[in-house]
Amino acid sequence: MAANSLLLRRAEILLPNGEFLRGDVQIRDRSIVQVAPDISASTVDSGTREIDADGLTLLPGVIDPQVHFRDPGLEHKEDLYTASRACARGGVTSFLEMPNTKPLTTTQTVLNDKLALAASKCLVNYGFFIGATAENLPDLVTANPTPGIKIFMGSMHGALLVDQKAALESIFANGSRLIAVHAEDQDRIRQRREQFAGHSDPAIHSQIQDNQAALEATQLAIGLSKKYHRRLHILHLSTADEAELLRHDKPAWVTAEVTPQHLLLNTSAYETIGTLAQMNPPLRSPHDNDVLWQALLDGVIDFIATDHAPHTLAEKAQPYPNSPSGMPGVETSLALMLTQAVQGRCTVAQVSRWMSTAVAQAYGIPNKGAIAPGYDADLVLVDLNTYRPVVREELQTKCGWSPFEGWNLTGWAAVTIVGGQVVYDHGKFNTEVRGQALTFNQ
Ligand code: DOR
Predict the structure, then answer these.
(1) What pLDDT, in 10s, does the model give residues 21-35?
(2) Residue 1's pLDDT is what?
(3) Which residues are designated catalytic?
(4) Res 315 pLDDT > 90
């Protein structure tokens, strides 16, 4: 009897070489053991559960490398249980979470507490960044396990803001692990906030935290990364200016990501959804959308993250600038990107590379991001034949809204599998499933 044996039958399987195979995948315990056109029932363990995946496409589970899940301390917006349900529904089987929770994730003790919290309530796999302050260098060097150090160079209040050159220098100069930066220049933002004081139109947000603020911080981060030959990741690249900079000057040890909202939404969204469109870095122009897309297609941008950053509708209803920045994303990201693929803007294989394979490679996450024997059975079966709209009532995120409500999408997850266990199946959740802590070979 094999409690954790699964056989997926007749799926369109995305292979590591980017081609598709119509066939079967055998899973034992947490791992993929066989991928073949037709696996004979006589070779699988008795008691194996079979899933008929006819008409569905099998992809490696999404690894979302930038989310804010608010737990502990801000659970009125989201918590690790509700967020991981949203992940399961969205085909996201692993996530890397940011340190701006309460208390801030700036020490090994707080990191350990967060890992224990996730072990008790998280339906998918998890990893947590260690947050840089101007004072916690020893923790940044030794924290474990963590995908890397998160630096807010701007657009953050309190201890997590590291906007002084000397403090940045010492973080880049010490240790070797990955540094992920939120690159917006705080001085420029401060000045422009004063200049635009008194405005309550949320569209002004994109002018205050403008392209130049992002470009200046990205330039500084790349300069420091070159000076110290330090592994750098640029979070949520948002401007044409930064994409062009990287196109001409991107060291081999630098990676960059983009969010679906910076590809698919622009400043016109303020007219329709107001402060729900407010995030950091802000939405930009249609020209920025186009240049970011091209940079992604050309490999200048390496992968995709959602920056899932939920706030309640009541919080968002405050007039700008009191409305908080951020929007949810884990539930809609895969369907948004697969819809783009089906409509011809890119391929399904590219989407899977950007949302899983390339993330696993960049962060050194072993055995994830591919469908092949020996890899972890973190998988998603998607339906590329049916269109369904984003509906508020169906959302699992605690904040209960999406900037993409009403968008008609294809490529929704039909079945999501975490560590060989079905966690989501056509609208139903197995809430007994627990993810595991990710490890990072860097
Ligand atoms: O819009 C944002 N919201 N950007 C960030 O970097 C932080 C996030 C949040 O935590 O709300």
Answers:
(1) 999 999 999 999 999
(2) 42
(3) 307
(4) yes
Query: In angstroms, what is the span from residue 207 Cα to ligand 1's centroid?
Result: 17
The number of the ligand 1 atom at minimal distance from the alpha carbon of 68 is: 10
Q: How many domains does the chain have?
A: 2
The residue nearest atom 3 of ligand 1, judged by CA position, is: 326
Q: Which tens digits make up the pLDDT trace of 237-268?
A: 999 999 999 999 999 999 999 999 999 999 99
Rounded mean pLDDT of the chain? 97
Using one digit for the tens of pLDDT, what is the confidence trace for 126-154? 999 999 999 999 999 999 999 999 999 98
Residue 415: phi, psi to the nearest 5?
A: -140, 130
Residues 50 and 101 reside in one and the same domain: no
* Pocket (CB within 6 angstroms of ligand 1): 68, 100, 182, 279-280, 307, 309, 324-326
Among residues 291, 190, 175, 283, which one has the least CA distance to residue 236?
283
Same domain for 179 and 46: no
Task: Determine the distance separating the centroid of ligand 1 and the alpha carbon of 311, expressed in angstroms.
Answer: 10
Q: Is residue 438 a part of any domain in this protein?
A: no
User: What is the position in ligand 1's atom list of the atom closest to the CA of 182?
Assistant: 6
Residue 440 lies in a domain: no
93 and 180, same domain (yes or no) = yes
Tell me the pLDDT tens digit for each residue of 350-397.
999 999 999 999 999 999 999 999 999 999 999 999 999 999 999 999
Distance (Å) from CA 72 to ligand 1 centroid: 16
Please state the rounded mean pLDDT for residues 39-55: 92
Ligand 1 centroid to Cα of residue 430, in Å, is 30
Nearest Cα neighbor of 328 from 73, 89, 60 is 89
Q: Quick one: 392 exposed, middle or buried, by C-beta within 10 A (0-12, 13-18, 19+)?
A: exposed
- By most ligand atoms within 8 Å of CB, the mutation choice from 71, 78, 96, 100 for ligand 1 is 100
Structural domain harbouring 244: 61-363
| 151: Cβ contacts below 8 Å, ≥ 6 apart | 132, 162, 168, 171, 179, 180, 181, 182
Q: Answer yes or no: do 8 and 121 share one domain.
A: no
CA–CA separation, 273 and 268 (whole Å): 9
User: How are beta strands 5-14 and 49-52 bridged, if at all?
Assistant: parallel
Provide the whole-model pTM.
0.98
Q: Does 437 fall in a domain?
A: no
Residue 45 lies in a domain: yes
SS3 308: strand
